[in-house]
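Internal tracking record. Fields below are filled automatically when a chain is submitted to the structure queue. Please do not edit lines marked as system-generated. If the sequence contains nonstandard residues, flag them in the REMARKS field before resubmitting.
Queue: standard
Priority: normal
Entity type: single polypeptide chain
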Amino acid sequence: MAAPGVSSSSPVSYFSSSPSDNNDINALIQNVKWGQSGLGTGATVYYSFPTSNSAQLWTGFYRGDSGSEIYNGFTPLSEAQETAAISAFNTWSNFAKLDFIEVSNESYSSVGDIRIANSGVLSAYTYAYAYLPALNNPVGGDVWFNTSQPISSGNDYSVGGNGFQTMMHEIGHALGLEHPFEGDATISDELNQYQYSIMSYSDIPNQWDTGYSTFYPTTPMLLDVLAIQYLYGANMEYNTDNNIYSYGDNYAYETIWDAGGSDTIEYTGSLSTVINLNAGEFSSIGPSVKANRGISAQDQDNIAIAYNVTIENAIGGSGNDTIYGNSVTNTINGGAGNDTFVTSISHNDLSSLTQSGDQYLLVSNQATDYLQNIESIQFTDGTYALTSLLADNNQTITTPSFSSSVDGTSSTATPETYIGPVDYLQYQLIGSGSNESVTGAETNDFINLLGGDDAANGGGGNDVLDGGTGSNFLTGDTGNDTFFLDGRGGDITWSTITDFNGDSLNIWGWVDGTSKVLLEQANGGTAGYTGATLHIDLDGDNQIDTSVTFTGLSNSQISNSQALEVSGNGYLLMT
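SYSTEM-GENERATED OUTPUT FOLLOWS
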């Protein structure tokens, strides 16, 4: 789709007023958006920064006299304003499926849907205003800033400045958002503030901003995100890695949108802080944002997590921190200071509290959480020091032990608390690469034996047993277990799984289109542990590289397999 000309506009969609069953969304949207595919669909939107008020570059929909924006004090944006506008466009597109394209040199046949410039026609008390998207009306989407700002902070277009927040606000209008305090649907007075919406006029409830706050929002805020994603759909390609949202002792005021991965909020400063990992909630991290400084100053919670976002982990600073967990498995490190972990369960719902070194595993019927450098746990029915919880006879306080044998020498091994991407695992034991035999506990264990010819028994629980390279003898025992074998070691190997029933096996080294099963043997393997056996050629040379026996099973019981790949490494998944 090409950019519109001076007398045209890109497609828009109209819809009924208050289309959502969420009043907060209805309060923030008008009945129009860019794109012709309707609500929840993305759009391509062109923008430009006009440098001339020549009549041939402007539509006749604008007045032709001094009452028009283009003929009363017209000036192009300053460099700081352009930088702010581009940053604002990028920020909006991080949250929603919006593709912004700049028209760098305007002409009669090519201008932006959203055109931003300065004008002297605005009243003395107005920072800027914008026109909503419109069908067949080229004025729709245009944004005008006051040549003479009502207050000096209106000229601060740095991120966090009053002028930057105004730029975000006006582009919000140009995308179809409205003031949440006007129209048939409005939000409550409590929510009508910048903390929840940059489309508000209020820095705190019931008080219009006067331009003196210490710091302004740098992204759309919690309800803005909800509304813009309702119009255009969520950007599910933004922040899909394992992201760390790190904050120090500089000002911050933003909403986190994260589309995937295992993510962490980290505070590196020394102030006492509150980190809340729940979607739709706020944290207070770093220096307090003072709203309306000097008139009726009020500290603001400054970091929101957008709805439908999962942040798993938190790291506190050196102050006395309070960290709120959520419903998934959380890994929490309070850092220095006297720190409290807040959980949504009652003390009586705590199933176990297990210590391994300086880490604690908190298990309930709702979630499993890993805690480090936490001094207290706040339940719904009271706050308890961690030391008193450990002394409570109602809790499990022992760390499980694994039996181990390395090259024939038996011992007892103490596992570490598992910290990894698999939510349900509790403990881990990493082998030495020698010939080992390990038996796990009644917990959900991860046992990785690396190289060597090894044996592992997961014990109770849902375990992950990784024999590594070498020939391995693996028993999951009770629970639903996952086995790994690695055929990339260079030696010919033969492994046995003694109780493959409702479990899964991953064989590393399988290359789709190259690897193949050379022979299916009905009753192969070691005496007493025979069963269906696969002899596999991994590198395509028609020679056996690795074999695996499934004790007690027939060939028909192991026929479900799938070739997969992760990060360029192929494997065969068998279930």
